[in-house]
Amino acid sequence: MTSRRRPADRLVRSYVVTDGRAHPTRNTLDLVTLLIATDDLPLTGLNPEKRRLMELCRPGALSVAEVAGHLSLPVGVAKVLIADLMDSGHIVTRAPIPAARPTDARILQEVLDGLRARL
Amino acid sequence: MDSAPASDDVYLRPSVQTAVKLLIVGHFAVGKTTFVGTLSEIRPLRTEEVMTEAGALVDDLAGMRDKTTTTVALDFGRLTLNDRLVLYLFGTPGQQRFTRLWQDMTQGALGALVLADTRRLSQSFEVMGVLEEHGLPYAVALNQFPGAAGHQLDEVREALDLLPETPLVRCDARDRVSSTRALISLVEYLLNRTGHLEHA
């Protein structure tokens, strides 16, 4: 669905959150890359958006898209923040990147079995 | 501001190792959001991307800086398929002009389910064209709207100019079983293309 709704809670412009950067420091983040927050690094020195991201991720794993959705951030902005947090060691990714090759018959069979089991 | 969600099932099971995605595509108001919401185990989420429209003002010689930007919303949901594997469904608007969005969306996607409305079949051509351009295999599901005439599937297949192997099914995006069956048709097709389909 297409909509022009703008989240009311986004008070800070995207380019401020990312220090003016439009691209993440790494190019390996997909919408479904799974993120895990490490719990041994202090959050001091992180800007408020990165701190929110860490607080969101600490209880359990989420995908890049879910992080963007929960924080009401555009995916592009979320990727910049996540890449920074990977650089600083605050976030690690779980699945190998990319998570699955579309031609992988084993993955497709597993998806099919999982869907059939829901009927 | 949103705080971290309280519910435990917001988060993935610790055992999940792999995430895959399928796209749910179609024209405006065809039922993408409904379909994603019917199947998702989490409250469907929405993200927004600010897109600069490709080709906007390309013939402007006056050096005007303000390009046309549009906010595109993606609705998505999640299905945990087993202890290790999770499937994400992304409802994606079908407009061709969002080139960068399409590159992001199709990268790593297993395939796409095109939702179509028999009252507006011609509006599905642009969506199918974009998928073909990006080399993403797809199946077509006719979302059953109340009051829409019950067309024969072979008439619809001809009207949409589908390849003989492209699956065409009916579904009700409000119904979990019907929507699941539509996804199964898509994944059977994807698996068939690899030559490894095991008949169940």
| Average of pLDDT of chain B | 85
Instruction: Quickly give the CATH architecture of chain B.
Output: 3-Layer(aba) Sandwich
The amount of helix of chain A comes to 25-40%
- Beta-strand fraction estimate of chain B: 25-35%
What value does the Rg of chain A take, in angstroms?
Answer: 16 Å
What's the architecture of chain A in CATH terms?
Orthogonal Bundle
Q: How would you write the strand order of the largest sheet of chain B?
A: 2-3-4-1-5-6-7
What proportion strand of chain A? 5-15%
What best-fitting shape of chain A do the alpha-carbon axes yield?
A: elongated
Alpha-beta classification of chain A: mainly alpha
Overall shape of chain B = globular
Order of helices and strands of chain B: EHEEEHEHEHEH
Going by CATH, the homologous superfamily of chain B would be: P-loop containing nucleotide triphosphate hydrolases
Quickly count the domains of chain A: 1
Largest sheet of chain B: 7 strands, mixed
For the terminal residues of chain A, how far apart are their CA atoms?
Answer: 26 Å
Per DSSP, the total helix count of chain B is 5
Q: How would you describe this structure to a colleague?
A:
- The complex is a heterodimer of chains A (about 120) and B (about 200).
- With about 120 residues, chain A is mostly helical.
- Chain A has one domain: Arc Repressor Mutant, subunit A (Orthogonal Bundle), CATH 1.10.10.
- Helix content of chain A is about 40%, strand content about 10%.
- Chain A contains five helices and three strands, in the order H-E-H-E-H-H-E-H.
- Chain A has helices at about 15, 50-55, 65-70, 75-85, 105-115, and strands at about 35, 60-65, 90-95.
- In chain A, strands 2-1-3 form a three-stranded antiparallel beta sheet.
- Chain A is elongated.
- Chain A starts with 13 loop residues before the first helix and ends with a helix.
- The longest helix of chain B is centred in the last third of the chain and has 19 residues, at about 175-195.
- Chain B is globular and about 45 Å long.
- Chain B is α/β, with parallel strands linked by helices and about 200 residues long.
- In chain B, helix 4 (about 155-160) links the parallel strand 6 (about 140-145) and strand 7.
- Chain B has a single domain (about 20-195), classed as Rossmann fold, CATH 3.40.50.
- The interface between A and B is large, with 56 and 67 residues.
- Chain A: Pfam families: DUF742.
- Chain A: This is DUF742 domain-containing protein.
- Chain A: It comes from Streptomyces cupreus.
